[in-house]
Amino acid sequence: MPARAKAAILGAALVALTLWPLAHIGLVRRYDVNPWKLAGWGMYSAPRSRSLGMEVFGRPRGGGPLAHMAEPPPTVRDEASRYLERHRWLRRLARPAALAAAVAAAEPGWDEITIAVFEPELDRTSGMIVLRALVHRYTRDVRGVAYAGEVDPWRAGLPPPLLLQLTPSR
Known about the structure:
Elements: H1 3-31, E1 53-60, E2 67-68, H2 74-90, H3 97-106, E3 110-122, E4 129-141, E5 144-151, H4 160-163
Antiparallel strand pairs: 1-2, 1-3, 3-4, 4-5
Helix pairs in contact: 2-3
């Protein structure tokens, strides 16, 4: 390989190495990607949390309040574990579509599925660790389960005792 080609490859690698932290900052701000992941050098800007929690709710056909899936079947539990591992890395970039499909199969009477993921976060104003929620909503249509978007936890219809544990939305 000629010296000129080697220098070009080395130069491109140095440019990529220099620009990646800037791109990673954008991913963390826009999509809430975990600053500890994807080699972004932001790992010391946020505490590393290993604890994640999740609750699954559904709205029965005909409306009414959300029903809690208290004892999910093994298929739902397996999908929940896979989703939480992806969420730990990618947060808002990871959608629980496979989990919603498993819940829809387990609960055919639900027209709406709400998946709430909880994780501790450093509140930069108080310096305290607070609980934050990311709520995904899915609706059932003729093709199956369709993503209806992220929902503010305070407007998602979650049970009040659960909301009392959360920090207000950003």
